[in-house]
Amino acid sequence: MSLVERHLSSLMRQLATQDHVELVHPFAEHKTFGALVYVAECFGFRYAGVRLVGRHKILHVHLVRSPEPWAQQRAAANIAAFPQVGAGGPVPGMYLNSLTPVPEAQADVDLIVAIIKYDALVEAGNRRQLLTIGWGSGVLFLLLALLTGVYAVLLPLAVLTPAFLLGALRVNTVRRAKLAAQLTAAGCAQVRDDLGRERYVRPVPNPAQ
Question: How far is CA 130 from CA 124, 168, 181, in A?
């Protein structure tokens, strides 16, 4: 079984048995997640957000079953039309045996990828957390330098650690701004979720798709 088939087989098993699904593929690219989300939405689910888990910030993509009648009608139609997804059969919106979108699905997948990237940057760029870590680390290294007298090593760390985190925050902000412009141009609406995080919501898909 190819890697694509394993991804799709795992996805379809979860879609068949769960109302909440989390995609976790540590070495997968954003475009792979975008294609998998597109396929899941063809079968009655909708994208709900991401989490970054662990020290290495592994991306977890969260999906939930859509309660919308048109979404479930679309799912029923695709279940009938694509009964062998993950078992070598054709996949809605993708070329055969791949997670490469056909031209008709490319724009939708690109938009999903942009939203996943934006949400991941929001998760990674928690301003309050990064500032607390940055300035806290700087103060800690400064105190250690005063206590131990190891100034040559600890003083540069007291300066460089906050500077590095502030630089990372700045890069994160610039990348988010570019994605926000792309999402706004595509008709996405800016919202805040229950935790106060800024997000973008896509226009309602065409029920006929």
Answer: 9, 9, 24
Q: What are the residue boundaries of the structural domains of the chain, listed by start?
A: 3-201
Rounded CA-CA distance 92/89 in Å is 10
pLDDT tens string 110-159: 999 999 999 999 887 665 665 666 566 667 766 777 778 777 767 766 66
- The answer to whether residues 38 and 72 touch, using CB atoms and an 8 Å cutoff, is no
pTM of this prediction? 0.80
Compute how many other C-beta atoms are within 10 angstroms of the C-beta atom of residue 202: 18
Nearest 5°: the CA angle 164, 199, 184 is 100
Cα separation, 23 vs 44, in Å, equals 16
Q: Are strands 58-65 and 189-192 parallel, antiparallel or unpaired?
A: unpaired
CA torsion 88-93-19-179 (nearest 10°) is 130
Phi, psi of 108, rounded to the nearest 5 degrees = -65, -45
* Residue among 7, 142, 144 nearest 87 (CA): 7
